Amino acid sequence: MHLKHLYFSISQIFNFYKEGFKNLTLGKTLWKIIFIKLFVMFVILKLFVFDVNFNSIFKSDKEKSTFVLKNLTLEGK
């Protein structure tokens, strides 16, 4: 009985939001803009701006460990 009540509550919440978004015209446009901006931020910028990573700079594990050790043991300047 408890699961039936939980399912009914979740379906009511879902229907509430579904009906609300169905009647929005400005809201749909704003959501499209938000999704386009998120796509640009996470996909396009990731490919072209944030392409350099730790594995592309150093090829071997020895080079990586030397870099980390050297930067961890630097004294504050």
TrEMBL record:
Domain of life assignment: Bacteria
Keyword vocabulary terms for this entry: Membrane, Transmembrane, Transmembrane helix
Alphabetical list of InterPro entries matching this protein: DUF4492
Transmembrane segments annotated in the record for this chain: 30-49
Identification of the protein by name: DUF4492 domain-containing protein
